[in-house]
Amino acid sequence: MIPVIGLVAGIALGLLLQPTVPSGLQPYVPIAIIAALDAVVGAARALIEGRFDDRVFVISFVSNVAIAAVMVFLGDQLGVGSQLSTGVIVVLGIRIFANAAAIRRSIFHA
Amino acid sequence: MSDPGGPSPSVRDAESILDRLAATALDDDYYVQRETPPGPSARTLTGVVLASFALLFTIAFVQTRNDRPATEAEREALIENIGVRQDLVASKRETVERLQEEIADLQAEAVVQGPGVSPLRVAAGATAVRGPGVVIEIESADDRERPEGRVSDTDVQLVVNGLWLAGAEAVAIDGHRLTSTSAIRSAGEAITVNYRSVGEPIVIEAVGDTNTLRHQWEEGPSGRYLATRADDDGLTWSVRGSDQIDLPAAPEARLRVSARPLRRSTS
Protein backbone atom coordinates (compact mmCIF):
# COMPACT_ATOMS: atom_id res chain seq x y z
CA MET A 1 0.00 0.00 0.00
CA ILE A 2 2.72 2.42 1.00
CA PRO A 3 4.64 1.96 -2.28
CA VAL A 4 1.52 2.77 -4.31
CA ILE A 5 0.87 5.84 -2.18
CA GLY A 6 4.47 6.88 -2.71
CA LEU A 7 4.20 6.50 -6.48
CA VAL A 8 0.96 8.45 -6.67
CA ALA A 9 2.30 11.14 -4.34
CA GLY A 10 5.44 11.55 -6.44
CA ILE A 11 3.51 11.86 -9.70
CA ALA A 12 1.02 14.27 -8.15
CA LEU A 13 3.81 16.37 -6.67
CA GLY A 14 5.59 16.55 -9.97
CA LEU A 15 2.44 17.48 -11.89
CA LEU A 16 1.28 20.04 -9.35
CA LEU A 17 4.56 21.82 -8.68
CA GLN A 18 6.05 21.35 -12.13
CA PRO A 19 9.52 22.12 -10.85
CA THR A 20 12.22 22.83 -13.39
CA VAL A 21 15.54 21.10 -13.15
CA PRO A 22 18.36 23.63 -12.67
CA SER A 23 20.54 23.74 -15.75
CA GLY A 24 23.52 22.59 -13.70
CA LEU A 25 21.74 19.34 -12.91
CA GLN A 26 20.32 18.79 -16.41
CA PRO A 27 22.98 16.28 -17.54
CA TYR A 28 22.34 14.10 -14.49
CA VAL A 29 18.63 13.60 -15.12
CA PRO A 30 18.76 10.99 -17.90
CA ILE A 31 21.39 8.88 -16.14
CA ALA A 32 19.57 9.19 -12.82
CA ILE A 33 16.36 8.02 -14.48
CA ILE A 34 18.07 5.02 -16.04
CA ALA A 35 19.70 4.12 -12.73
CA ALA A 36 16.42 4.50 -10.84
CA LEU A 37 14.63 2.45 -13.47
CA ASP A 38 17.20 -0.29 -13.03
CA ALA A 39 16.64 -0.37 -9.28
CA VAL A 40 12.86 -0.36 -9.68
CA VAL A 41 12.82 -3.13 -12.29
CA GLY A 42 15.16 -5.16 -10.09
CA ALA A 43 12.81 -4.63 -7.16
CA ALA A 44 9.83 -5.71 -9.26
CA ARG A 45 11.62 -8.90 -10.20
CA ALA A 46 12.53 -9.58 -6.58
CA LEU A 47 8.91 -8.94 -5.61
CA ILE A 48 7.63 -11.46 -8.14
CA GLU A 49 10.23 -14.00 -7.11
CA GLY A 50 9.19 -13.48 -3.50
CA ARG A 51 12.49 -12.17 -2.23
CA PHE A 52 11.80 -8.43 -2.11
CA ASP A 53 13.56 -6.60 0.70
CA ASP A 54 12.82 -2.95 1.48
CA ARG A 55 16.31 -2.26 2.75
CA VAL A 56 18.00 -3.73 -0.28
CA PHE A 57 15.71 -1.77 -2.57
CA VAL A 58 16.28 1.54 -0.81
CA ILE A 59 20.02 1.05 -0.68
CA SER A 60 20.28 -0.14 -4.29
CA PHE A 61 18.13 2.75 -5.50
CA VAL A 62 20.06 5.42 -3.65
CA SER A 63 23.45 3.95 -4.48
CA ASN A 64 22.54 3.44 -8.15
CA VAL A 65 21.45 7.04 -8.59
CA ALA A 66 24.39 8.36 -6.59
CA ILE A 67 26.98 6.31 -8.51
CA ALA A 68 25.43 7.28 -11.83
CA ALA A 69 25.55 10.96 -10.84
CA VAL A 70 29.16 10.65 -9.69
CA MET A 71 30.15 8.97 -12.94
CA VAL A 72 28.55 11.67 -15.03
CA PHE A 73 30.16 14.34 -12.88
CA LEU A 74 33.57 12.68 -13.19
CA GLY A 75 33.11 12.23 -16.93
CA ASP A 76 32.23 15.89 -17.33
CA GLN A 77 35.28 16.92 -15.37
CA LEU A 78 37.54 14.64 -17.41
CA GLY A 79 35.97 15.50 -20.75
CA VAL A 80 34.58 12.01 -21.37
CA GLY A 81 31.07 12.72 -20.10
CA SER A 82 29.14 11.43 -23.09
CA GLN A 83 31.26 8.29 -23.40
CA LEU A 84 30.88 7.48 -19.74
CA SER A 85 27.14 8.13 -19.93
CA THR A 86 26.93 5.73 -22.85
CA GLY A 87 28.76 3.09 -20.84
CA VAL A 88 26.47 3.54 -17.86
CA ILE A 89 23.40 3.36 -20.09
CA VAL A 90 24.64 0.17 -21.78
CA VAL A 91 25.35 -1.58 -18.50
CA LEU A 92 22.12 -0.52 -16.82
CA GLY A 93 20.15 -1.19 -19.98
CA ILE A 94 21.40 -4.78 -20.07
CA ARG A 95 20.45 -5.19 -16.43
CA ILE A 96 17.01 -3.74 -17.04
CA PHE A 97 16.40 -6.06 -19.97
CA ALA A 98 17.65 -9.11 -18.06
CA ASN A 99 15.41 -8.33 -15.10
CA ALA A 100 12.46 -7.60 -17.35
CA ALA A 101 13.06 -10.94 -19.08
CA ALA A 102 13.06 -12.69 -15.71
CA ILE A 103 9.78 -10.98 -14.81
CA ARG A 104 8.32 -12.05 -18.12
CA ARG A 105 9.45 -15.62 -17.55
CA SER A 106 7.93 -15.85 -14.11
CA ILE A 107 4.63 -14.29 -15.25
CA PHE A 108 4.10 -16.11 -18.54
CA HIS A 109 6.33 -19.10 -17.81
CA ALA A 110 7.88 -18.58 -21.19
CA MET B 1 22.46 -18.15 -11.00
CA SER B 2 25.27 -20.67 -11.16
CA ASP B 3 25.42 -22.89 -14.17
CA PRO B 4 26.40 -26.40 -13.12
CA GLY B 5 26.79 -27.69 -16.65
CA GLY B 6 28.92 -24.78 -17.81
CA PRO B 7 32.63 -24.29 -17.69
CA SER B 8 34.48 -23.45 -14.51
CA PRO B 9 33.93 -19.96 -13.06
CA SER B 10 37.38 -18.69 -14.04
CA VAL B 11 36.69 -19.49 -17.71
CA ARG B 12 33.27 -17.87 -17.43
CA ASP B 13 34.89 -14.72 -16.09
CA ALA B 14 37.05 -14.49 -19.17
CA GLU B 15 34.15 -15.30 -21.46
CA SER B 16 32.15 -12.12 -21.57
CA ILE B 17 31.60 -9.28 -19.20
CA LEU B 18 28.18 -8.66 -20.76
CA ASP B 19 27.03 -12.23 -20.16
CA ARG B 20 28.04 -11.96 -16.54
CA LEU B 21 26.23 -8.68 -16.29
CA ALA B 22 23.03 -10.22 -17.58
CA ALA B 23 23.43 -13.24 -15.31
CA THR B 24 23.78 -11.12 -12.18
CA ALA B 25 21.17 -8.57 -13.15
CA LEU B 26 19.44 -8.79 -9.79
CA ASP B 27 21.43 -7.42 -6.89
CA ASP B 28 22.98 -10.24 -4.89
CA ASP B 29 21.61 -8.77 -1.67
CA TYR B 30 18.12 -9.88 -2.63
CA TYR B 31 19.30 -13.47 -2.32
CA VAL B 32 20.46 -13.04 1.26
CA GLN B 33 17.89 -14.57 3.59
CA ARG B 34 16.97 -12.36 6.52
CA GLU B 35 15.44 -13.56 9.73
CA THR B 36 13.89 -10.27 10.81
CA PRO B 37 11.00 -9.00 8.71
CA PRO B 38 11.29 -5.35 7.67
CA GLY B 39 9.91 -2.82 10.08
CA PRO B 40 7.46 -0.02 9.29
CA SER B 41 10.31 2.46 8.88
CA ALA B 42 11.73 0.39 6.03
CA ARG B 43 8.30 0.30 4.37
CA THR B 44 8.06 4.07 4.66
CA LEU B 45 11.52 4.45 3.19
CA THR B 46 10.47 2.34 0.25
CA GLY B 47 7.48 4.60 -0.22
CA VAL B 48 9.68 7.68 -0.05
CA VAL B 49 12.12 6.22 -2.56
CA LEU B 50 9.29 5.31 -4.90
CA ALA B 51 7.85 8.79 -4.49
CA SER B 52 11.16 10.34 -5.43
CA PHE B 53 11.39 7.96 -8.37
CA ALA B 54 7.95 9.02 -9.57
CA LEU B 55 8.86 12.65 -8.98
CA LEU B 56 12.01 12.29 -11.05
CA PHE B 57 10.07 10.67 -13.85
CA THR B 58 7.34 13.27 -13.79
CA ILE B 59 9.76 16.17 -13.72
CA ALA B 60 11.64 14.84 -16.71
CA PHE B 61 8.39 14.13 -18.53
CA VAL B 62 6.89 17.54 -17.82
CA GLN B 63 10.06 19.38 -18.68
CA THR B 64 10.43 17.54 -21.98
CA ARG B 65 6.82 18.34 -22.79
CA ASN B 66 7.32 21.99 -21.91
CA ASP B 67 10.55 22.30 -23.83
CA ARG B 68 9.13 20.89 -27.03
CA PRO B 69 6.95 23.90 -27.87
CA ALA B 70 9.96 26.13 -27.28
CA THR B 71 12.08 24.29 -29.84
CA GLU B 72 9.18 24.19 -32.24
CA ALA B 73 8.56 27.88 -31.80
CA GLU B 74 12.24 28.52 -32.43
CA ARG B 75 12.04 26.51 -35.63
CA GLU B 76 8.97 28.33 -36.81
CA ALA B 77 10.55 31.66 -36.03
CA LEU B 78 13.56 30.65 -38.10
CA ILE B 79 11.37 29.60 -41.01
CA GLU B 80 9.46 32.86 -40.80
CA ASN B 81 12.74 34.75 -40.69
CA ILE B 82 13.90 32.98 -43.83
CA GLY B 83 10.67 33.89 -45.58
CA VAL B 84 11.00 37.53 -44.60
CA ARG B 85 14.59 37.64 -45.82
CA GLN B 86 13.60 36.00 -49.10
CA ASP B 87 10.91 38.62 -49.63
CA LEU B 88 13.47 41.28 -48.86
CA VAL B 89 15.87 39.86 -51.44
CA ALA B 90 13.06 39.70 -54.00
CA SER B 91 12.09 43.32 -53.40
CA LYS B 92 15.73 44.40 -53.59
CA ARG B 93 16.05 42.54 -56.86
CA GLU B 94 12.99 44.36 -58.17
CA THR B 95 14.54 47.63 -57.11
CA VAL B 96 17.74 46.72 -58.95
CA GLU B 97 15.80 45.92 -62.09
CA ARG B 98 13.84 49.14 -61.88
CA LEU B 99 16.98 51.16 -61.34
CA GLN B 100 18.69 49.43 -64.24
CA GLU B 101 15.76 50.31 -66.46
CA GLU B 102 15.95 53.86 -65.21
CA ILE B 103 19.66 53.92 -66.01
CA ALA B 104 18.99 52.62 -69.49
CA ASP B 105 16.33 55.29 -70.02
CA LEU B 106 18.60 58.01 -68.74
CA GLN B 107 21.42 56.78 -70.96
CA ALA B 108 19.10 56.82 -73.92
CA GLU B 109 18.06 60.38 -73.03
CA ALA B 110 21.62 61.47 -72.51
CA VAL B 111 22.65 60.49 -76.00
CA VAL B 112 22.72 63.57 -78.08
CA GLN B 113 20.49 63.00 -81.04
CA GLY B 114 22.14 64.29 -84.14
CA PRO B 115 22.74 63.37 -87.72
CA GLY B 116 25.84 61.28 -87.03
CA VAL B 117 24.79 59.57 -83.83
CA SER B 118 22.65 56.77 -85.18
CA PRO B 119 25.34 55.19 -87.41
CA LEU B 120 27.80 55.54 -84.56
CA ARG B 121 25.48 53.69 -82.22
CA VAL B 122 25.06 50.95 -84.79
CA ALA B 123 28.82 50.72 -85.31
CA ALA B 124 29.39 50.58 -81.57
CA GLY B 125 26.85 47.82 -81.19
CA ALA B 126 24.82 49.90 -78.75
CA THR B 127 21.50 49.28 -80.45
CA ALA B 128 19.82 46.29 -81.97
CA VAL B 129 19.83 46.30 -85.75
CA ARG B 130 17.34 44.97 -88.26
CA GLY B 131 17.75 44.91 -91.96
CA PRO B 132 18.77 42.95 -95.02
CA GLY B 133 22.10 41.20 -95.15
CA VAL B 134 23.87 37.91 -95.62
CA VAL B 135 24.10 34.78 -93.53
CA ILE B 136 27.23 32.63 -93.65
CA GLU B 137 27.33 29.19 -92.10
CA ILE B 138 30.58 27.34 -91.57
CA GLU B 139 30.97 23.79 -90.37
CA SER B 140 33.98 21.60 -89.71
CA ALA B 141 34.89 18.74 -91.98
CA ASP B 142 33.34 15.37 -91.25
CA ASP B 143 36.77 14.04 -90.41
CA ARG B 144 37.31 15.94 -87.19
CA GLU B 145 40.41 14.02 -86.22
CA ARG B 146 42.55 16.19 -88.42
CA PRO B 147 43.21 19.52 -86.75
CA GLU B 148 43.07 21.27 -90.13
CA GLY B 149 39.54 20.01 -90.69
CA ARG B 150 38.16 21.99 -87.77
CA VAL B 151 36.89 25.53 -87.93
CA SER B 152 39.43 27.62 -86.09
CA ASP B 153 39.14 31.00 -84.46
CA THR B 154 41.33 32.37 -87.26
CA ASP B 155 38.80 31.22 -89.86
CA VAL B 156 36.01 33.01 -88.07
CA GLN B 157 38.11 36.12 -87.55
CA LEU B 158 38.98 36.23 -91.26
CA VAL B 159 35.36 35.80 -92.31
CA VAL B 160 34.23 38.57 -89.99
CA ASN B 161 37.01 40.89 -91.12
CA GLY B 162 36.05 40.16 -94.70
CA LEU B 163 32.47 41.11 -93.92
CA TRP B 164 33.54 44.40 -92.36
CA LEU B 165 35.72 45.01 -95.42
CA ALA B 166 32.78 44.27 -97.69
CA GLY B 167 30.82 47.01 -95.97
CA ALA B 168 28.79 45.24 -93.27
CA GLU B 169 27.16 47.64 -90.83
CA ALA B 170 26.71 45.11 -88.06
CA VAL B 171 27.90 41.54 -87.56
CA ALA B 172 26.89 38.86 -85.07
CA ILE B 173 28.09 35.30 -84.55
CA ASP B 174 25.42 32.93 -83.23
CA GLY B 175 23.56 35.93 -81.89
CA HIS B 176 26.58 37.52 -80.21
CA ARG B 177 26.90 41.00 -81.62
CA LEU B 178 30.42 42.02 -82.50
CA THR B 179 31.91 45.39 -81.73
CA SER B 180 35.35 46.82 -82.10
CA THR B 181 36.31 45.28 -78.77
CA SER B 182 34.83 41.81 -79.30
CA ALA B 183 37.10 38.81 -79.00
CA ILE B 184 36.96 35.71 -81.16
CA ARG B 185 39.16 33.12 -79.54
CA SER B 186 39.49 29.40 -79.28
CA ALA B 187 39.30 27.86 -75.86
CA GLY B 188 40.33 24.26 -76.11
CA GLU B 189 38.29 22.86 -78.97
CA ALA B 190 35.52 25.43 -78.76
CA ILE B 191 35.40 28.87 -80.27
CA THR B 192 34.35 31.68 -77.99
CA VAL B 193 32.80 34.95 -79.02
CA ASN B 194 32.55 37.64 -76.40
CA TYR B 195 33.81 34.94 -74.01
CA ARG B 196 30.77 32.72 -74.71
CA SER B 197 31.38 29.49 -76.55
CA VAL B 198 29.53 28.99 -79.81
CA GLY B 199 28.61 25.65 -81.32
CA GLU B 200 28.73 24.44 -84.87
CA PRO B 201 27.51 25.24 -87.39
CA ILE B 202 28.81 28.71 -86.78
CA VAL B 203 26.28 31.20 -88.10
CA ILE B 204 27.64 34.60 -88.99
CA GLU B 205 25.04 37.21 -89.78
CA ALA B 206 25.88 40.59 -91.25
CA VAL B 207 23.58 43.50 -91.97
CA GLY B 208 24.24 45.52 -95.07
CA ASP B 209 23.27 45.70 -98.68
CA THR B 210 22.69 42.07 -99.55
CA ASN B 211 24.03 41.98 -103.08
CA THR B 212 27.03 44.20 -102.54
CA LEU B 213 27.93 42.49 -99.31
CA ARG B 214 27.69 39.03 -100.71
CA HIS B 215 29.53 39.86 -103.92
CA GLN B 216 32.29 41.82 -102.24
CA TRP B 217 32.81 39.21 -99.58
CA GLU B 218 32.94 36.27 -101.96
CA GLU B 219 35.33 38.07 -104.28
CA GLY B 220 37.44 39.44 -101.47
CA PRO B 221 40.33 37.69 -99.73
CA SER B 222 38.11 36.39 -97.00
CA GLY B 223 35.75 34.54 -99.31
CA ARG B 224 38.62 33.17 -101.35
CA TYR B 225 40.35 32.02 -98.19
CA LEU B 226 37.25 30.13 -97.06
CA ALA B 227 36.86 28.55 -100.50
CA THR B 228 40.44 27.34 -100.32
CA ARG B 229 39.88 25.97 -96.85
CA ALA B 230 36.83 24.10 -98.14
CA ASP B 231 38.76 22.63 -101.05
CA ASP B 232 41.84 21.69 -99.11
CA ASP B 233 40.53 20.67 -95.70
CA GLY B 234 36.90 19.80 -96.29
CA LEU B 235 35.18 22.60 -94.38
CA THR B 236 31.62 23.15 -95.47
CA TRP B 237 30.21 26.62 -95.73
CA SER B 238 27.34 28.43 -97.30
CA VAL B 239 26.39 32.01 -97.90
CA ARG B 240 22.94 33.29 -98.57
CA GLY B 241 21.24 36.60 -98.65
CA SER B 242 18.40 37.45 -96.33
CA ASP B 243 15.80 40.19 -96.46
CA GLN B 244 15.53 40.59 -92.77
CA ILE B 245 18.15 39.94 -90.15
CA ASP B 246 17.70 40.83 -86.50
CA LEU B 247 20.86 41.47 -84.59
CA PRO B 248 20.78 42.17 -80.85
CA ALA B 249 22.73 44.90 -79.16
CA ALA B 250 26.14 44.05 -77.82
CA PRO B 251 25.95 42.71 -74.28
CA GLU B 252 28.04 45.36 -72.66
CA ALA B 253 28.42 48.97 -73.48
CA ARG B 254 30.91 49.74 -70.82
CA LEU B 255 32.51 53.11 -70.64
CA ARG B 256 36.20 52.54 -71.24
CA VAL B 257 37.55 56.02 -71.76
CA SER B 258 36.04 59.31 -70.75
CA ALA B 259 37.15 62.87 -70.75
CA ARG B 260 35.73 66.15 -69.62
CA PRO B 261 34.38 68.20 -72.48
CA LEU B 262 36.96 70.74 -73.52
CA ARG B 263 35.97 74.26 -72.58
CA ARG B 264 37.09 77.09 -74.69
CA SER B 265 38.95 79.65 -72.65
CA THR B 266 36.80 82.71 -72.21
CA SER B 267 39.62 85.10 -71.73
Question: Could you describe the 3D structure shown?
Answer:
The complex is a heterodimer of chains A (110) and B (267). Chain A has helices spanning 2-17, 28-48, 54-78, 81-108. By secondary structure, chain A is an all-alpha fold. Chain A has one domain (23-108). Chain B folds into 2 domains: 39-110; 117-247, 2-Layer Sandwich (Alpha-Beta Plaits), CATH 3.30.70.1880. The model of chain B is unreliable at 1-7 (pLDDT under 50). The longest helix of chain B is centred in the N-terminal third of the chain and has 71 residues, at 40-110. Helix content of chain B is 48%, strand content 17%. Classes of the chains: A mainly alpha (110), B alpha+beta (267). The interface between A and B is large, with 47 and 36 residues.
Notable characteristics:
heterodimer, A: 110 residues, mainly alpha, globular, B: 267 residues, alpha+beta, Alpha-Beta Plaits, 2 domains, five-stranded antiparallel β-sheet, three-stranded antiparallel β-sheet, 8 strands, elongated, disordered N terminus
